[in-house]
Fold this protein.
Amino acid sequence: MRYEPLLERMPTTRIPSFTDREGVSRGERPRYAEEAPFKIHGGCGLMGICDESGSLMSGEVPIRAMAVQRDRGNGLGGGFAGYGIYPEFPDHFCFHMMYHDLRAKEDAEALFDRYFQIDLAEPMPTRPVKGIGDAPLLWRYFLNPDPHKLEAAEMTPEDFVVHSVMLINSTVDGAFVASSGKNMGAFKGVGFPEEIGHYYLLEEYEGHTWVGHNRFPTNTPGWWGGAHPFTLLDWSIVHNGEISSYGINSRYLEQFGYKCTLGTDTEVAAYLFDLMLRRHQLPIELACKALASPLWSEIDRMPAEEQAVMRSLRAVYGPGMLNGPFAIVLGFNGGMVALNDRIKLRPLVAARQGSIVMVASEESAIREVLDAPDRVWAPKAGEPVIATVSGNGSPVHSDLHLSADEVSCAVTGMLETCDAVEVS
Amino acid sequence: MTPVTELTKPAAAEVAKPIEGYLQAVPEARVDGGVATIDARGIYYKHLNEVVRRCLADGAKKVVLESVNGQRYIGTGLKGAGTRIEVHGTAGQDMAMFMDGPTVEVFGSAQDGVGNTMNAGRVIVHGDAGDVLGYGMRGGQVFIKGDVGYRVGIHMKAYETRHPVMVCGGKARDFFGEYMAGGVLVLLGMDSRIGGPLVGGYIGTGMHGGVIYLRGEVESWQCGKEVGTFPADEKDLATLRPVLEEYCEAFGIDVDEVLSMPFTKLVPISHRPYGKLYTYV
Amino acid sequence: MPISLIQPEFKVHIDYDKCHKCGRCVQQCGWSVYSFNERPIPDDSKCRACHRCVTYCPAHCITIRKNDLALRDNANWSPALRQGVWRQAETGGVMLTGMGNDKPYLSIFDHLLLDACQVTNPSIDPLREPMELRTYLGRKPSAVEVTSDGNGGFRLAEGAGVQKNIKLDVPIIFSPMSYGSVSLPVHRSLAMAAERLGILMNTGEGGLHADLYPYADNVIVQVASGRFGVDPEYLNRGAAVEIKVGQGAKPGIGGHLPGEKINREVSETRMIPQGSDAISPAPHHDIYSIEDLRQLIYSIKEATDYKPVGVKIAAVHNVAAIASGIVRAGADYVHLDGFRGGTGAAPQIIRDHIGIPIELAIAAVDQRLRDEGIRNQASIIAAGSIRSSADLAKAIALGADVVAIGSAALMALGCHMCQGCHTGSCSWGLTTQKPELTRRVDPEWGAERLTNLVSAWSHELQEILGALGVNAVESLRGSRERLRSIGLDEQTGRILGVKPAGV
């Protein structure tokens, strides 16, 4: 078992009921996966902005972009991810943690102490905001894997981090990793996005890339971990829409070992990106073409060589095609990719101003933050908008060697999704 | 550290109360000689539209909205032919929906759903407009200077004396004139920010009434199977000219330049395109 | 004691007041029901209720009724069972019949319901917006490898991508029905319709008549245990080759085309002497095990420059494991035939009591191939009583790539399911070689009716996809989340991977 070095002295049973160390009952500890015994439906609004020059923008930018799109959500989920926000710790993994209670924090910190060198641990700076209640304890940690443990585990640091995320999410009840990438972080919760951003003092951060999300779920999730963006290392995904092909998309992914347990389209999209980009090493442009495939009639009109690529892509990845309305933004340390469904059933507007590329569900979000865009346009259905920060490269983690079920486990926090992990 | 990129700075009021979404305050209207002016910056749509309606009820003939950005439903449900609303900024979703008479002029772009189920009146947009423009429009005029999105003029219909007219000055995406049942839909391709052809595929798919005029040509694969294409003839241009004259007047364009290129006319081949699709049991 | 205990099943009633005495019924009936003595006189015992006479009677004066003879009620000994005993006591024979299983087993398709979109995602209008049914039949790689083309674009890496797949415009093909069991005009109708529809017909095991060579791109040539008409040319006269191991109507047994049906043309096509019986052995005697199947698949591929090779099996209890073995043996598709599938002739006892429903076979095979990570390596063709576009959509949602229709295709050509195919006297000219009967099918007329049927089902499938909010059939394929069961037990639901309605 590759996990054994990590599992040594780990808490091996879940603690079923919860009182914190002061003896105050905090009710039942929520678990991420509890949100989704069924398919979750919902609409949303989103944004992404990236300065390809690497210049930094205040976190107030994404807040204002989301605020004008307020009515696309219903106050049951909002969130952001920022990149380049921790220049003081560019080479540290930063864990943004959500704790249901102090005991969860202690359990998770015990694990951090054991496996990582922590260079800074501190509460997330927050301010009280009207309308935001029931927040979990929010902490962040700048850390790197302990070199001895890393060696013993025979893993790359990226693999080690993801395995740790997996362990925390699945074995430390009441603890949830909101993000774990380098020089980035996710800030999310239950509320409207501008309230969430305000709560996290987002205006005090500066990043070269930001994504934002406003959620309109048709159920009533109460768990902050369930808000978007969804993250894995430095990847963050925000998504608007409802994929009508969820049933076959999830069964397709299961064939490759992924386990779709959250019932959300975002989870499916994350795995599809992981499969196509990391495991099948498809270029991002083609992965997008597989997810939002051109119509056969368009493919038939393409030049022969391109036609051969597209025909194969569609015939092979057809079960993974996201069919139905969606707009999606994938953020990563090197930039962002925005993509729309193939017959444009969800809105997406894009703009460029100098080195800044921006996308949003509504043009007003762009006008809110860009004073003089060179160009504002509605991208063609299925044509990705790709922005890359110079020098930072692609969204593919070559240092990641996870199997599909490990990815599922890390993302969902459900140990049972990972066949390879055995806890005795 | 790299410098912070220059971006628009929030107005003073927002700095004081930075980032809690829209201001929940009811804005003041400055009224001067029948013209009401409202600063819409940061105002929630509900309060904004409430004040617009109150100004009109109090006798204003023209309402000027400044610093609009994304507020929804401007002009929605309003009646009265003499009324005029000027929007400075980017108008939000469902602008002029169900509108029955007024004129709404946007100095900027409009988003999705403009002129949805509109009955009468006029919409003038000096920028671009989004998807599903003029859905089910039954009357009135929609003039867009720039590009438009997907499913534009979808299910436009004519009824008795009502004949809707829509003219778009830029390019359009797929499903232009989908289900069209009446009225006139014109695309010029003159003021565009997007690449590619004048218009996407599936033009007039399901079309069973009305007429589409395109400035330029289309290939047969672009057209829905329910439409036929013809070069616009003298008679067509005679119909088109007064429509374009009004359009050009709104934007200060030379109508002869617009008419300097040949137009293609698209009309439905049948009023019942699916007559053979069904078998009765 | 020469008198038979078996009474006629039908009563032929002629309204002589209206009868033109034209003798059309005498001429039309393939079963010699009528004699003529100033007026037509029916022999009820020969009638199979095929309605050929009824359809062609210019006076509309013929009515076929069930023979209402009362037998004492017995819920255990049905009249059919009693009749079987009498028949076998009289003849000592194995009861032979035609068409598919007619027993009232539970129809799983009839207990499955499809989904539709409301509010959270939009339904799509299939008449106005794209609604894609194109399907590629054959083996696919699990990933697509590309290289840069040097201009910012990409090209397929050497040998990568989808190779040797067959493009189908709609996910419906015609089931194998051999020339010999059906007439040449039937084969011709199927081939012409397949070409017009952009789909495939399947020769069945009786070879390919030379007249059909121009349709090679729309033909699957079949290789069965009898190897009738199989030579290198035949193997290369189709878009794909299918090894027939079994048939849903008669799993595990061979076939027997009586010598009367082997006329000159059938004899030439099958390459056997005229008038001699054409006997298909029960197994392929070069396939006694799965590795032998692999050997045969690859010998066919060698002989055809690696055309797609499929394997057709009857759906039997262990179908999932068998299908997995077939895929691993190198087949490009697995053709599953459920226990309701049709036949030109089969022992009734086999037809009615062996095999499993196609719905369960699709579900089990699709899941097994996914569990083993080899679902992309082969397509699944499902057959065995696909009766409507609803069955088609449900079969695809359960995991089939393509369905094959045989009985429905014959019905389009006039078949009334009288179950007399094995007699060689089909009044509709379908399952006969008698020239006076086969000429009743005009291939142009037949091709048009088949094209109509498949087009109508395709339109209906598009309507279903539109309601489901997807615009490509691959988004329904295997999407069991879009199915719910009603009135099925929990275990069946689990095997199908379908939740009960209301959940």
